[in-house]
């Protein structure tokens, strides 16, 4: 769909009604074994294992449809679907690292990414170093001759620092490092990192792409054939693949991603504005706010926002925090985000930082603004603060 806008791509990419009896949505292929009628066709398939339908784990029409749609949104050569966001992160890191390599990972990274790097990559003989997410072009001083990967996440998990993606990518490529980014927060609708120098873009499709908190799915999009082939080989070696029903739910979720994201954004901004006026709140950590680190970069490169942000509250006893959170009517307490439902979660960014310090003594609450009416969400938060203050 040359020159098509993103809303149009969302509606049409990864579909082939003519090849599916006129049916609008691609069918779900539950598949392990694929039969070949002749020895010649079996041997031909073995010679091209990453093309066509060869074995269920290698790819099916369902996975190809989802990957085609995501690749078109990302402006990628091709995409690879796997079983979860962390599966996508691990697969991408394994694809471009080996014993003796050095990798740089932003200090604001998703906690499980940090654990995989520290526990698994390090065990394989990879040197892992974390860097200040606000470092920008200064990352050049941390690069080594054996730096194989620079890993970004922008905005960062929990604290939402926006990174200077083009500057970091340019410095990394100068030494031949592969640039990988976790782009889950922005989705391909708000930011297309491959157009800013990134080689590999990762999404936890569990979040906004699926959009309904009912599937686990990850996807890795690559700027060119060489990076795609490395990722596809890594996924094949480790058996990383996505289930057919989850792929279907991801593809279905993409169709409404644009309209949902607008509501998530509007609700999050309304909540952030209301919370910024609360006496209990000392800071709002949202890229659209001028005091959020990297706000100018957000305006330059992203310009829109999703539904996830944090606030810093004044210190309160745990009993008061429990009184606040234990009786929410609309906000649930739970991990993940990106679904239709609103979530609230106390987090501890200082507990995992190593390259930077998080010294704020206040309580950090991460909120995901779902698709409910903003006024109802605000009433739920207002009642929560009443309970908190009564418990002080």
From TrEMBL:
What name does this protein carry?
Cystathionine beta-lyase
Lineage: superkingdom: Bacteria
**Entry-linked Pfam families:** Cys_Met_Meta_PP
Q: Which species does the entry assign this protein to?
A: Azospirillum rugosum
Q: Which UniProt keywords apply?
A: Lyase, Pyridoxal phosphate
Q: Name one GO molecular function term.
A: lyase activity
The answer to keyword Lyase applying to this record is yes
Q: Which SUPFAM superfamilies match?
A: PLP-dependent transferases (SSF53383)
Give the EC number. Answer: 4.4.1.8
Q: Give start-end ranges for the coiled-coil region(s).
A: none
Transmembrane portions of the chain: none
Q: Which family does it belong to?
A: Belongs to the trans-sulfuration enzymes family.
The protein's matches in Gene3D superfamilies, at most eight in alphabetical order, are given as: Aspartate Aminotransferase, domain 1, Type I PLP-dependent aspartate aminotransferase-like (Major domain)
Reaction(s) catalysed by this chain, per the record, are:
L,L-cystathionine + H2O = L-homocysteine + pyruvate + NH4(+)
Q: Which cofactor does it need?
A: pyridoxal 5'-phosphate
Q: Where is region (Disordered) located?
A: 1-22
């Amino acid at each position: 769909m040359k020159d098509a806008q993103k809303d149009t791509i969302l509606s049409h990419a990864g579909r082939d009604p003519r090849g599916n009896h006129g049916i609008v949505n691609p069918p779900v292929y539950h598949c392990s074994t694929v039969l070949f009628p002749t020895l010649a066709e079996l041997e031909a398939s073995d010679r091209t294992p990453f093309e066509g339908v060869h074995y269920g784990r290698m790819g099916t029409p369902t996975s190809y449809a989802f990957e085609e749609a995501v690749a078109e949104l990302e402006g990628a050569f091709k995409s690879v679907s796997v079983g979860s966001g962390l599966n996508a992160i691990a697969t991408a890191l394994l694809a471009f690292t080996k014993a003796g390599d050095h990798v740089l990972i932003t200090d604001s990274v998703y906690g499980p990414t940090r654990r995989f790097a520290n526990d698994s990559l390090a065990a394989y003989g990879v040197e892992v170093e974390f860097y200040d997410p606000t470092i920008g072009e200064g990352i050049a001083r941390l690069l080594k001759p054996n730096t194989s990967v620079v890993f970004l996440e922008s905005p960062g998990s929990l604290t939402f620092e926006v990174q200077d993606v083009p500057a970091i990518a340019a410095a990394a490529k100068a030494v031949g490092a592969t640039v990988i980014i976790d782009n889950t927060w922005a989705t391909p609708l708000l930011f297309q990192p491959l157009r800013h120098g990134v080689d590999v873009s990762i999404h936890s499709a569990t979040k906004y792409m699926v959009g309904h908190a009912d599937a686990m799915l990850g996807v890795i999009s690559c700027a060119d054939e060489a990076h795609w082939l490395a990722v596809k080989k890594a996924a094949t070696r480790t058996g990383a693949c996505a289930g057919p029903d989850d792929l279907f739910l991801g593809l279905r979720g993409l169709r409404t991603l644009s309209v949902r994201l607008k509501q998530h954004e509007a609700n999050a901004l309304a909540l952030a504005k209301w919370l910024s006026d609360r006496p209990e709140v000392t800071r709002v950590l949202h890229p659209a706010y001028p005091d959020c680190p990297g706000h100018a970069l957000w305006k330059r490169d992203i310009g829109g926002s999703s539904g996830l942000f944090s606030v810093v509250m004044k210190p309160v006893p745990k009993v008061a925090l429990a009184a606040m959170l234990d009786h929410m009517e609309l906000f649930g307490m739970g991990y993940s985000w990106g679904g239709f439902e609103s979530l609230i979660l106390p987090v501890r960014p200082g507990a995992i930082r190593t390259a930077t310090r998080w010294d704020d003594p206040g309580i950090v609450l991460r909120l995901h603004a779902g698709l409910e009416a903003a006024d109802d969400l605000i009433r739920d938060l207002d009642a929560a603060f009443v309970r908190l203050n009564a418990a002080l």
